Structures are given as C-alpha cells and as structure tokens.
Amino acid sequence: MANHIFALVAIMLMAGVFGGLLNYYMQAQVDSDNTSMPRSLVGGLAASFLVPLILFLVSSDLVVESQGNPSGMLIFAGFCLIAAWASRFAMTTVTKRIMQESQHVRERTDELLTEIRLLQRELEPLLEMETESDEGNAPVVLAPEDELDVTTANVLTALGNGRYIFRSLKGLAGETDLDEHTLNKTLGIIVARDLGGKILSKKGTRWYITQKGRQHLAASS
Fold first, then answer.
1. Which tens digits make up the pLDDT trace of 126-142?
2. Could you say which of 55, 111, 149, 201 would form a disulfide bridge with 60 (CB–CB 3.0 to 4.6 Å)?
3. How many whole angstroms separate alpha carbon 210 and alpha carbon 176?
4. CA distances for 38 relative to 21, 41, 85, 94, angstroms
5. Any idea which architecture 150-219 has in CATH?
6. Every domain of the chain and the residues it spans
7. The pTM of the whole model exceeds 0.70
8. DSSP characters for the chain?
C-alpha cells in the first residue's frame, strides 16, 4: 500500500510539473510579458494534487482500484495531467472575472459618488433656508455699492418669492419678461455676488437664492 501511495505521489508530481511547463510555454507564445514559470509550475502541481479529492467527491474508486493495475495508473496519470494543464484556464478565467467585477464595482462607486454630490448640492439651499443663522433677525443695511439695478433686483425677487426653490431659465424668463440672453447675464451677476447659486440637476440647470440673497431682499424691502 505504501508503495502504491508513493507511486501516486510520483505520478502527481510529474504530471503537475509537465502540465505546468506545458502551460508556461503555451502562454509564453501569446503573452510573454505576463508569463511566469514558477506560477505555472505551482498551479500545475496544485491542480494535480487535487485530483484524488475530486475523484473522492465524485465517488470514484480509481485511486484504490489502480493498485496493481497498470491501466488504472495510466488513467490516473491522465487525470492529473489534464488537471495540471487546465489549471491555467481556470486561473485565467477567475482572474478575468475578478478584474471585471472590480471594474464594475469601481464604475458603480463613481456613479454613486456623483449622485451623492448632486444630491448634496441640491440639499444645500434647503438646509440653508431651514437653518437659523447666528445673526438672527438683525436688520441688514446695504451699502451703496451693494445696491442692485432694477433688472437684477427683479430676477433676485423672482428667485426668492417664487413657488419653487430651484428655478428653471424658462420659468424665470416667463416671470420676469426677460429674454434668455439678458436673463443668463443677470443670473451670472447674481451668482458672482453670492446672492444666488446654480446646480446641474437631473432635470437640467437650475438656479436658487442663497441666504445672503434673502438678506439682501429683506434689506431692500
């Protein structure tokens, strides 16, 4: 029995080495930069030594029946060689699968981060409006240089007193009777002076009034 076990181990060793070398030279013809002989040999040996376990799991008695049976030994050697040779395909498939899953996870993570940033920007005006300022209700006195022209004041009033928090260009144009070119220019002034803000939502670009803009309206009234 001991001699039989030694013979099986010798077969698995030879088949693992031969299968690993076969994998190495076949892979070297395709991609020599990413080919490693030690990795191929280790993979072949590992796969070869798993053959007895696989045979046990499938309820095969080949290991026992091969004792004193040359044909059974040859069949066992064939199984070991096939397992060692197929190890490269198994490792390549698993590696590619892991890389694909990792890429998918990275892409999904980037999408979620983008959605979170957009949601955060959309919530900022709501939080600002619902959060009490440290300044309380103290009246704000505007300096002469802070005064707005009539057009800018009307657009800011539309932003602050409208039905919606986030206003579209079309809605503002209809409410202020301004053409889109003038309205875009005016909104740019409001955003530059931090009286209003602009976000890119799922429905497109939207504008809103900031806390500073509300204080400006309160001081102007």
1. 666 555 555 555 455 45
2. 55
3. 19
4. 9, 5, 14, 19
5. Orthogonal Bundle (1.10)
6. 1-106, 150-219
7. no
8. -HHHHHHHHHHHHHHHHHHHHHHHHHHHHH-STT--HHHHHHHHHHHHHTHHHHHHHTT--HHHHTTT-HHHHHHHHHHHHHHHHHHHHHHHHHHHHHHHHHHHHHHHHHHHHHHHHHHHHHHHHHHHHHSPPTTTT---PPPGGGPPPHHHHHHHHHHHHSS-SSB-HHHHHHHHT--HHHHHHHHHHHHHTTSEEEEEETTEEEEEE-HHHHHHHHHH-
- What amino acid occupies position 180? E
Say if CB 1 and CB 67 are below 8 A apart: yes
Backbone angles phi, psi at 200, to 5 degrees: -105, 100
Segments of the chain with pLDDT less than 70:
1, 30-35, 88-98, 118, 121-146, 221
pLDDT of residue 121: 67
Residue 150 tokens, joined: 């009539």
Question: How many other β-carbons are positioned within 10 Å of the β-carbon of residue 39?
Answer: 16
CA–CA separation, 13 and 11 (whole Å): 5
Residue carrying structure tokens 């045979």: 55
Q: Distance (Å, rounded) from C-alpha 54 to C-alpha 199?
A: 60
- CA 64 – CA 1 distance, rounded (Å): 9
Q: Which residues contact 77 (CB under 8 A, 6 or more apart)?
A: 11, 14, 15
